[in-house]
Q: What sequence folds into this?
């Protein structure tokens, strides 16, 4: 059985994951408005992934018989600057989320909650991928340029990204 401290921490993480989704939806709207349909698509896929993460934790808490406590979601910013700035903010945000996941692992260790430790390993791996993906986009922007043909090529590449929910076997 999951402890109250662990359940409270996971409930808080649901809030953070939904905020992340909301942030990326705002970034999608912003880049769409700026005519960057590929970036808008990439951020919309990020929105979908973050909602999946929130629901994964939600279902885990349900399976553990814990009380779900949903809280208000903060409003994300609506202005972000140029594309380089927005991607830098994205990387910074993903690093913050990695820190939150690491803190959850620490809590699970303190609580001697082996089931939650195992559950959270999926998120540890996911965050490595998230940071790597954003870093790759940032590197391309720095190399190709934050405007003109370089930006056009990166935007076109990002337009092809599609959301694919993880398969059951990949979740475990």
A:
């Amino acid at each position: 059985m999951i402890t109250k401290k662990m359940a409270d921490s996971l409930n808080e993480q649901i809030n953070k994951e939904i905020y992340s989704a909301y942030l990326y939806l705002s970034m999608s709207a912003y880049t769409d408005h700026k005519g960057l349909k590929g970036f808008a698509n990439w951020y919309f896929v990020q929105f979908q992934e973050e909602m999946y993460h929130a629901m994964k934790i939600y279902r885990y808490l349900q399976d553990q018989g814990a009380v779900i406590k949903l809280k208000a979601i903060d409003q994300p910013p609506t202005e972000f600057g140029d594309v380089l700035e927005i991607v830098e903010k994205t990387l910074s945000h993903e690093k913050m989320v990695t820190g939150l996941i690491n803190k959850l692992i620490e809590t699970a260790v303190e609580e001697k909650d082996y089931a939650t430790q195992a559950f959270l390993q999926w998120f540890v791996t996911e965050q490595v991928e998230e940071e790597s993906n954003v870093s790759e986009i940032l590197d391309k922007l720095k190399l190709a340029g934050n405007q003109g043909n370089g930006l056009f090529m990166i935007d076109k590449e990002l337009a092809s990204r599609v959301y694919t929910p993880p398969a059951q076997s990949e979740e475990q």
The longest helix spans residues 114-144.
